[in-house]
Structure prediction request, 273 residues.
Amino acid sequence: MKKKYYNNHFIQKKWSQVFLKDQNTIDTIIKTFNPKNHQKIIEIGPGLGALTKEILNIVDPNSLILIERDFNLVKRLTQMFNKKINVVYQDIMRINFFDLSHQVGQKLRLIGNLPYNIATKLIIYLFKYINVIYDMHFMFQKEVARRLYASPNNKEYGRLSVIAQYHCKIIPLLKIPATSFVPIPKVESIIVHLLPHTNTPYPIINIKQLSLLTKLAFSQRRKTLRNSLSILFDESEIKQEGINPTLRAENITISQYCILTAMLKNKLNLPSI
Prediction:
């Protein structure tokens, strides 16, 4: 198979690398993101610096930290910006954002064009650090974005919808055509703003138990709750909380999932996630 290059960089297919090339798209993303000098900004997967350059036209280099796992790109970024910027050579899934926030002394703003192959896994990982994140502006594959902000009674509504919306207000911002990238992906993308709740509309619950509950419900989404959650609840227990046990997973609101999760607090021998 012939190797693909862009701007003299060998494109790593295993990491789903695509690079923004359309300047109008880049300008619109930065305008929407609206970076400020007093903020600490983390760019995930900066690639060849298309967004980075424009951010640095607005803020000082010490306001920005880049996290990149491709060592060849780390070297290029360091050369491109004359070592004036902090480039961290690391897999994003190994970054401790509690430590990073403590080091910079404030909550973090995150921005990035997330690789399609890890986007869902990464966003779940970042929710563990939601208390030190001010907001996130990420580019997702259109199908993943729609799952993030989907409402109940919708085929896109699923486990990711529940967990994401429990943590954040999800705001779709911009549709990005595939032709904005090199190489051109087979899908369109959407920029999504994830804004952590300051006054959460939901009760505080055990996230691991919410994860367990939604995994059971949505892995059998054509089944009714009384069947898909039968290893956790009797039908009568579900009814006692005012929830119809004949509904399917996609018909249950986030608030109702929180109620069901709270019911697990005193149950023993829960199945592993």
Observations:
- Confidence is low (pLDDT under 50) at residues 6-11.
